[in-house]
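>> received
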Amino acid sequence: VTALQAQVSTLQGQQGLARDFTHPEPLEEAGGKA
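>> returned
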């Protein structure tokens, strides 16, 4: 895993958490991420 990939994964994780707090249900719109 390169530094860039790790950084992207971290950003995606943060966006996922933020989305969970603001929009708990429409996860399918986020890309079907479980």
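>> The CA atoms of residues 18 and 24 lie 9 Å apart.
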